[in-house]
Amino acid sequence: MIIIQVLILAVIGAMIGWITNIIAIKLIFRPLKPITIPIINVKIQGLIPKRRQEMAKSIGQVVEEELVSVNEIIDKVIEQENLSNIMFIIKRKINGIIDEKLPSIIPSTFKNMIFNYVNEMVDSEGERILKDLIEKMVHKATNEVRLSEMIEEKINSFELEKIESIIISIAKRELKHIEILGGILGFLIGIIQGMLIILF
After folding, report:
1. β-pair partners for 44
2. Which parts of the chain fold into alpha helices (H)?
3. Which of 60, 64, 66, 101 would bridge with 147, disulfide CB 3.0–4.6 Å?
4. Which CA distances in Å does 192 have to 171, 196, 198?
């Protein structure tokens, strides 16, 4: 009989711990808008909805300062492999324009001379000109583009339901572990309570 009483208390404790953690997780996201509790006149709102702007600003700053900057993005874009591809595209585009615009009466030998000259010019000067242009773009982008502000605006533009679904999809397993842990702790507390009742 005593064992049954202890087990009942343990099961009740497990249920309380499990349900409490489920409610606590829900309160991270809900309610989306402030709700006033009558009589005590206290407003409650989900943690993320309440602090979304602060979180968006912090995430933007962390990404810009610690993870990636405008300079790093542009450096990645202008790696040698990308430059070579850009040069190839430029040559192909110019050659296409020359072939299209030059009158058909011009001998193919002369056209080939023009193609070769253009290709040599692009090969010898194109990369330098392109790098100079990119450096100017980097300077302009660094002064005008604020990656942190872009990220902040993007997060703030999300619907709260979308933010909730993103977080849950990422941390689904961890949140489930928290729920289960609440049940386990509640079960253990229930056993301890039962033992204390028996002893005292």
Report:
1. 35
2. 2-29, 47-50, 52-62, 70-77, 80-101, 108-121, 127-144, 147-157, 160-199
3. 64
4. 32, 6, 10
CA–CA dist 195, 2 (Å, integer): 9
Question: Using CA atoms, how far apart are residues 114 and 109, in angstroms rounded to an integer?
Answer: 9
Sequential DSSP letters for 9-41: HHHHHHHHHHHHHHHHHHHHH--SS-EEETTTT
Nearest to 145 by CA among 73, 89, 200: 73
CB of 102 within 8 A of CB of 114?
A: yes
Tokens, residue 129: 């000109």
User: Containing H/E element for 43?
Assistant: strand 42-44
Rounded to whole angstroms, what are the CA distances from 187 to 18, 95, 158? 9, 77, 39
pTM assigned to the model: 0.56
What radius of gyration, in Å, describes the C-alpha atoms of the chain? Answer: 33
pLDDT per residue as tens digits for the range 38-97: 888 888 888 888 888 888 888 888 777 766 666 666 666 666 556 777 778 888 887 787
